[in-house]
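A quick word before the example. In earlier lectures we treated sequence and structure as two separate objects. From today on, think of them as two lines of the same record. Here is Large ribosomal subunit protein uL13 written that way.
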Amino acid sequence: MFKTYIPPVQEIDKKWYVVDAADKRLGRLATEIASILRGKNKPTFTPNMDTGDFVIVINAEKVDVTGRKRQQKLYRRHSGRPGGMKVETFEQLQNRIPERIIEKAVKGMLPKNALGRKLFTNLKVYAGSEHPHEAQKPEVIDL
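And the structure line, produced from the sequence above:
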């Protein structure tokens, strides 16, 4: 009766976009990026296929959060060994690895399966304003 539209592989057009994260709110930025990675902004969106685009995020060290999240938001990781839990605040992680903050925010908004892991590989995050993807001729989008 109702059938899911499956676009042919030739019809899936992958583009590259550049997003400047300077002075943008983390959550608002991450939702827009996840939507583009998923392909929800396209008429050919199919939930079980990779119809999304590539996203390059620059100036990751300048991303912003509201309130007291700089001191109170915690990022946890575990080594897998007993007592191996490491906890650090937003501010500490931003000083150490600023790319990780955007990566974790976007990854949490993607599906938790093989498709989500594949879509996550289409995200490229850089701390500074330079990126090595000029050959792909990315379009600059303002979110």
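Notice the following. Helices lie at 26-38, 69-72, 90-96, 98-107, 114-120. We will return to this example when we discuss secondary structure assignment.
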